[in-house]
Amino acid sequence: MPLSHTSWAPYLKNRLTPEQIQNIDYFLNTVYQEKTIFPPRDKVFAALEATTLQNTKVVIMGQDPYHEIYQAQGLSFSVPDNIVAPPSLRNILKELSTDIGLRQSHDLKSWSAQGVLLLNAVLTVPKGQANAHAGLVWEPLTDAIIQTVSSDGDPTVFILWGKYAQSKRRFIDESKHLVLTAAHPSPLSAYRGFFGSQPFSKANAFLKENNRTEIDWLN
Predict the structure, then answer these.
(1) Which has the closest alpha carbon to 86: 116, 121, 59, 62?
(2) Which one, of 54, 101, 71, lies nearest residue 62 by Cα?
(3) 179, 38 Cβ separation under 8 angstroms
(4) Catalytic site residues?
(5) How far apart are the first and last CA of the chain?
(6) Are strands 125-126 and 37-38 parallel, antiparallel or unpaired?
(7) Can you name the residues that pair with 159 across neighbouring β-strands?
(8) pLDDT per residue over 42-69, tens digit each?
(9) How far apart are CA 94 and CA 160, in angstroms?
(10) DSSP assignment letter at 108
(11) No. of helices (H) and no. of strands (E), the chain
């Protein structure tokens, strides 16, 4: 599905220039012809397809998709259950288990259905080359998505793990929304403030205070 066919398109068109939209279309129509790119072409906008603006209650910002075969689903940090969970995802579930409880699945599509926008800052990656598509075409789009949620969405929780995700903080109206920051869940940094940060219970407390349905993080 192209960006123009997602429910987000009407909100994003005034935040992106025609040239930026053309650059995204050109990128998608060329790069997938040249080498192995993740996620699959039809899942690039999976996060926007799975979670509408009106349903967005929590935004979990990732850096870019996992870069090994079969991992990336177009949803930040999520991996199908038949694929081994990468270390960052295992650490997320470890923090969830101490914060709220044990979740059996590491496929996070059910979170998307409940209103968790699992958004990467960069939506594509070449096989085996982490963050190689940073600075090309995706940042204006994901900046626009964050701005749209901030300005047009209901009170929302933004979960920003690591410096890359936290660079989006400047687009968020913190008088209206809750921003939760911590170290990235990567094994290199998880013990520097990610573990013990309790993002899931804090998110639900904010949603409850603002008369929004809480997320069932264990489902």
Answers:
(1) 62
(2) 71
(3) no
(4) 64
(5) 27
(6) antiparallel
(7) 60, 180
(8) 999 999 999 999 999 999 999 999 999 9
(9) 17
(10) -
(11) 8, 6
